Amino acid sequence: MLSFAQFKGVKVIVELGGGDGSITRGIIERMDADAKLLVFEISEPFCNNLRKQFPQKNVEIICDSAGNMDKYLPEEKADLILSSLPFSLIPKDSRMEIYEKTRSHLKPTGFFIQICYSYILKFQFAQYFKSIKTAFTLRNFPPAFIIICN
Ligand SMILES: C[S@@+](CC[C@H](N)C(=O)[O-])C[C@H]1O[C@@H](n2cnc3c(N)ncnc32)[C@H](O)[C@@H]1O
């Protein structure tokens, strides 16, 4: 998933659904020293664990729904929003709120990248983003789709 993102020169990165931090770690390894990462995760135990793993000043673990991202994002919009949210399990209204806020908090030059198991998401994202590309990776278990939007 991360190989589809450009990290050089990027200043604001948002991750949706931090989970156990494996994607978070990959982002931190790749991002510039002066970049800032905001991670949204609704599970408190996961958030506590993420805060222990990633105490860096430029990494903020936000224990709230991605649907509330507008409350936390700085004035500057995001260059990259990377998501592993399980959209097929999220109710339609909440899902649409996250799609809309993701679109409106992304810079015009920014990218939203989702890893998922359902190709159907591509058609949902097409209502919010001008350009959608898809890829398939065997490097995830189970193999997954990567949807790249801007
Ligand atoms: C597939 S897991 C993430 C896997 C994670 N990227 C990793 O590498 O471990 C999805 C995560 O999204 C979180 N989540 C679900 N709905 C959410 C929401 N509305 N806002 C933020 N996080 C959410 C879940 O608690 C779960 O940890």
UniProtKB/TrEMBL annotation:
GO biological process, one term: methylation
Keywords: Methyltransferase, Transferase
Signal peptide (residue range): none
Family annotation (SUPFAM superfamilies): S-adenosyl-L-methionine-dependent methyltransferases (SSF53335)
GO molecular function: methyltransferase activity
One Pfam assignment: Methyltransf_25
Ranges in a coiled coil: none
Annotated ranges, domain Methyltransferase: 13-110
Entry-linked InterPro entries: Methyltransf_25 (IPR041698), SAM-dependent_MTases_sf (IPR029063)
Domain of life, source organism: Bacteria
CDD domains named among the record's database cross-references: AdoMet_MTases
Protein name: SAM-dependent methyltransferase
Protein species of origin: Echinicola pacifica
